[in-house]
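It is worth pausing here to work through a concrete case rather than discussing structure prediction in the abstract. The textbook approach is simple: state the sequence, then state the predicted structure, then interpret. We follow exactly that order.
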Amino acid sequence: MDQKESDRKEIPEEKPKRLSPLMFVGTGSDVGKSVITAAFCRIFKQDGFSPAPFKAQNMALNSYATPEGLEIGRAQAVQAEAAGIPCHTDMNPLLLKPSADTICQVVLNGKSIGNKHAIDYFTSNNKEKLRTEVCAAFDRLQARYNPIVLEGAGSISEINLREVDLVNLSMAKHAEASVILVADIDRGGVFASVYGSILLLKEDERKLVKGILINKFRGDLRLFERGVKMLEDLCGIPVVGVVPYFKDIHIEEEDSVMLHSKNRFSQSGKINMVVVLLQHMSNFTDFNALEHDERVHLYYSNQPSEIAEADIIIVPGTKNTLEDLQVLRHDGIAQAILQAHAKGKTVLGICGGYQMLGKELHDPNHIESNLTQIPGLGLLPIKTLLEGEKITRQVTFRFSGDENECKGYEIHNGRTDYLREIEGLNELSDGTLDGCQVANCMGTYLHGILDNKAFVDHLLQPYLADKKLQTFDYFKFKEEQFNKLADHVRKFVDVDLIYKIISRD
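Step two, the predicted structure:
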């Protein structure tokens, strides 16, 4: 959707040549920092600047491969899309990928440097080395783009972690960024969360906060006008906007928490597709395109009875393949998948899910867990050995002889071998094969494969009967959503004030 000029707030005709960095921090997690950051990446792009996103340290299982074949948090890749630029590791130099409750894989500048226990990570002597790395990444990014739109993590007032902070106000100081504090009014307690967050800051930190943004407002905005004045009087900081909650704009989420609240039941009249909810599920944005395909009803479940009702079952990626497969067996989900497959329903495995569908999985060096080996579900004639360096790369490919060029990316450990001669599911641009298909079961290492219309049409074809295929262009759809988001934020945020705050002229 093209943006209507009449919907935009006016900005000065003579834009400043250089803007100072702008940083969005939060009163807590899930207040909407990532989406607001994406909005301003698109706003600055629309206004003729060359913005780039930056988050020094991200903790997420949702990651993405850069064009150079390195790994960053998916949220920063989405923000780069909003800015209209290729993603780069400098946008997220430090990524923590939880593999257990207290253990994370540490990815530095796009490459894994091993697993760390949380206590070791937060108390180790390597913190200053990491601080040097993330600051250097920011400096490189700032030399190429204008302005840098930074995102904090969690709450800015975790005072017990102040000395080891790499991502919030310590980063703002290095960047000399103007900080906007984002608060979620929908969860309640907005006055306490805003005032308390600011009050807990040190005086030099407090001076960095130039504005307050209230997010996810529901109802009549006029009812909060007095609240805006009260917040400004309490904090001595202007409220730059009150952004209403929205449902009709679709931007990829950073966390998978919301998956548990999505519709978990099949529907008549559509092709029912279920994504199996794994304990260590990763790259859940693989399924965003399907959520907007009118032919499909997509739901998420870890209940055998709900999985059995689907026409197509998708086993997604995971950060701990062997342990998640063990849970599937224990909870009866594996049996439900096998029974559905025997009845002719389609099973698709992506990345770790692909590995699970094979005959054997081996982890002799305990890369992912304490398990050494485990039998797979046996639906595909493959075996997987987890060893060596992680593979991270963007790819172009064609599947099953189709002539349409598709795009995806790989992020996985391990080597998968065919146990008998079999055709690959996809042919990559370098001539190598990926995945395989046996009757109504297929598997692939390629994340993003479901963003490609040609592959989705192939997947749905057996269930469409004489229905006509409908065109759905997910890449065009995402562009429309970024523009809608920018329109929405412009309407409710004083963008002129933001420009004044970050102007260096």
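Step three, interpretation. The chain is about 30% helix and 25% strand. Residues 257-472 form a domain with the Rossmann fold fold (CATH 3.40.50.880).
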